[in-house]
Design a protein that fits this description.
alpha+beta, Nuclear Transport Factor 2, Chain: A, Beta-lactamase, 3 domains, 23% strand
Length: 554
C-alpha cells in the first residue's frame, strides 16, 4: 500500500486597512468595537493588537493537561482528523498518520480512554476493531501523550510523536493492514525447541528479523495482519517491520537457529535483574551464537547497539601495541597518573599510577595512560586496520541471519585517535562485537558470529584478512588470563579458571552520572560480553552476568 502525505491547510487572518490606518478588533470585559491607530508612538512599533497577552509560562496545571489531552483524544476517537491534528504541535505529521490510521490500518469503532496524568504525560488505552476483506479482530493496547506549552503563546498543546498513535512507531513509520506479504516463521533452538517471546521475552526483535529474512523461503504462507511498516529512518537503523495484530494466521515456515535454550533462558534471567543490560554468548571455535538477551524488549542492543566500549577495547589495542613492539606482557611500561596528548589531559580512574610496573600490570588494572602514552608512535589508521584485518570489525559485512551493527572504529587524529585506544572517541560497539573480540583471542582467529547456519541460505560469512602471530596471541591471552585471575575481572571470574581470560571496561557518556559498565571474557569454548548502561564499573555490573553464563559451560 502506498504511503500518503497530507499537509494541513493554514489560514492567516490579517487586520483590515481603513483609510491608510490599521483597524483592529478590541475585546474586553463588556467592551467591543474598533480601535483606530494612526501615527505616533504606536505606529513606530507597528500594528498593536489590544488583545495581545504575554505568552503563558510556568508549569502546566492539571486542568490544562487533562483538557488538552481530552480535546485531542475526543477528536481522534470521533474521526475528526483536522481537529485532532490542530491540537498538536505538528499538524501536518499528525494529519498524515491519523488519516492512515483509518485508511491504511483500517481501524474503526475506536475508544480512547485517558488514564491518570504524571506531570504533562497522560497514558491512554486504545480499543478498536481492525477489519480487512470480511475479517475483523479487536485491537487493544496502551499508549501515552505529552502536553507542552506552545512556543509562540504558551498555550498547552500535544507534543507530536508517532509513538502517540502506537508505541512501536518511529518517524516515517506507518501502520498498514493487509496480506502480510512475508509468511510467519517458527524459530527453533539448536536442539529443536521452539523459541517464543512468551518463553524468551527479549527475542522479539530477533524473531522479527528472522521472519523478514527467511519468511519467504522457509516454506510458509502469508496471513492477514496489522503491521508497523518501517520508514527510511527505521530502515537505516536496521529495524524490522513488526506485527501488531494477526487477523488470520498464515502457515509458518521453520528456521533453526544456533541458540541454546539453557543459555538463552539463563541470559534472559540475568539481564532482567538490572535495567538496560544486554549480553551475548557465543562459541569461539565456530562463531555460533548461543544466547542474546536484553532487559529492554524494544530494541536489540545486544546485536544493534552502538556504544563506546570503554576499556574492553584495550584487547584490540593491546594486540596492536604488541605487534608493533610498543608493549610486551612482561616488559616495563609507563602508567603515570595523567598523560596529555592532542591537547587533552587523560586520567586514570582516581588518578592512580603504577611505578615501575609491566604492561601486564597496566592491562590488568586498566591503566588508561599506559595506552594513551603510545599514541604518538601510531598512525591515525593503525587501530582501524587492526580492528578490521584481525578482528573482522568495522567493515559492515557480517551476515548472521538478522540485522546487526558490526562495530565502528573510524580513522581519527590527535586527541580523538588517542581516546579511541581506550574505547572512547568515535569507537562504537555492542555485546555481539565484544563477544567476538574475546572469541577471536580464544580461538586464535576471527570466526564471524552467526545465528542461522550459512548452509540454510547459502550466504557467505565474513572473514578476516590475517591472524595475529603466535607470539602476539600468546601474550594477549596471558594479559586476559592475568586480568581474570588478579586484575579488575578477578572478583567476577572467581572459580572459573584456569582456562579463561577477561577484560573490564567503563565508558563515560555525556550527561550520564554513571558510566556504562562493560565486560568481555572467555572460558573453555565459550565467549561472552555484556554491557549495563549507566551501571558503573564493568567488573561490578556486567561482570557477574557474563561470568554466570560462562560458568554454565557449553
Amino acid at each position: 500500500m502506498g504511503k500518503r502525505r497530507r499537509v494541513a491547510e493554514r489560514r492567516r487572518t490579517r487586520p483590515a486597512v481603513v483609510g491608510g490606518m490599521i483597524a483592529v478588533v478590541v475585546g474586553g470585559a463588556g467592551l467591543g468595537g474598533w480601535a483606530l491607530f494612526g501615527g505616533g508612538a504606536a505606529a513606530d512599533d507597528g500594528p498593536v493588537d489590544a488583545r495581545h497577552k504575554p505568552a503563558k509560562t510556568g508549569p502546566l496545571t492539571t486542568a490544562e493537561v487533562t483538557a488538552t489531552a481530552q480535546r485531542f483524544l475526543t477528536a481522534w476517537q470521533q474521526g475528526r482528523v483536522p481537529k485532532a491534528a490542530a491540537a498538536t504541535d505538528d499538524s501536518a505529521a499528525a494529519t498524515a498518520l491519523l488519516t492512515g490510521w483509518t485508511k491504511d490500518a483500517r481501524i474503526g469503532e475506536v475508544t480512547l480512554t485517558a488514564g491518570t496524568r504524571t506531570g504533562g504525560t497522560v497514558p491512554f488505552d486504545v480499543k478498536g476493531m481492525v477489519s480487512y476483506k470480511g475479517v475483523s479482530k479487536p485491537l487493544a493496547y496502551t499508549s501515552s501523550l505529552t502536553v507542552v506549552r506552545r512556543a509562540e503563546d504558551g498555550e498547552p498543546i500535544v507534543s507530536w510523536r508517532p509513538s502517540v498513535v502506537h508505541p512501536d512507531l518511529k518517524d516515517g513509520d506507518t501502520l498498514v493492514t493487509g496480506a502480510s506479504g512475508t509468511p510467519p516463521v517458527k524459530a527453533f533452538d539448536r536442539d529443536g525447541g521452539e523459541l517464543t517471546t512468551a518463553a524468551y521475552p527479549s527475542l522479539g526483535p530477533v524473531l522479527d528479523g528472522l521472519r523478514e529474512k527467511y519468511g519467504k523461503t522457509a516454506g510458509g504462507t502469508a496471513g492477514v495482519e496489522l503491521r508497523v511498516v518501517r520508514g527510511a529512518a527505521s530502515e537505516k537503523a536496521k529495524l524490522s517491520d513488526k506485527t501488531v495484530l494477526e487477523l488470520s494466521k498464515g502457515t509458518p515456515g521453520s528456521v533453526r537457529t544456533t541458540l541454546s535454550a539453557k543459555l538463552q533462558a539463563a541470559a534472559e534471567k540475568k539481564v532482567a535483574e538490572r535495567s538496560s543490560a544486554s549480553v551475548v554468548v557465543m562459541r569461539p571455535s565456530t562463531g555460533e551464537i548461543l544466547a542474546a538477551a536484553n532487559s529492554s524488549k524494544g530494541f536489540n542492543v545486544a546485536f544493534q547497539g552502538s556504544l563506546a566500549p570503554g576499556s574492553t577495547m584495550k584487547v584490540v589495542t593491546s594486540s596492536l601495541l604488541i605487534e608493533k613492539g610498543l608493549a610486551g606482557a612482561e616488559k616495563k611500561h609507563p602508567c603515570p597518573k595523567t598523560f596529555t596528548y592532542g591537547g587533552w589531559k587523560f586520567h586514570n580512574d582516581d588518578d592512580f599510577e603504577i611505578k615501575g610496573g609491566t604492561f601486564k600490570a597496566s592491562f590488568a588494572r586498566s591503566c588508561n595512560t599506559a595506552f594513551i602514552s603510545q599514541a604518538k608512535k601510531l598512525s591515525d589508521s593503525d587501530l582501524t586496520r587492526q580492528a578490521q584485518e584481525v578482528f573482522g570489525l568495522s567493515r559492515n559485512d557480517w551476515a548472521i541471519g538478522v540485522p546487526t551493527f558490526d562495530g565502528s572504529v573510524p580513522v581519527q587524529s590527535a586527541a580523538q585517535m588517542a581516546a579511541s585506544l581506550i574505547g572512547q572517541g568515535g569507537v562504537r560497539m555492542n555485546p555481539l562485537n565484544m563477544a567476538s573480540v574475546a572469541a577471536t583471542v580464544k580461538s586464535g582467529s576471527f570466526h564471524q558470529p552467526y545465528l542461522v547456519a550459512p548452509s540454510v541460505d547459502g550466504r557467505t560469512l565474513a572473514k578476516a584478512s590475517r591472524t595475529m602471530s603466535a607470539d602476539t596471541l600468546s601474550q594477549l591471552r596471558e594479559l586476559m588470563r592475568y586480568t581474570a585471575a588478579y586484575g579488575t575481572a578477578a572478583e567476577a571470574m572467581s572459580g572459573l579458571g584456569p582456562d579463561y581470560g577477561a577484560k573490564t571496561g567503563s565508558a563515560e557518556v555525556d550527561n550520564q552520572k554513571k558510566p556504562n559498565g562493560w565486560f568481555t571474557a572467555y572460558r573453555g569454548d565459550l565467549a561472552a560480553a555484556g554491557v549495563v548502561q549507566a551501571g558503573g564499573h564493568g567488573g561490578d555490573t556486567a561482570g557477574p552476568i557474563v561470568a554466570a553464563l560462562l560458568g554454565m559451560g557449553g
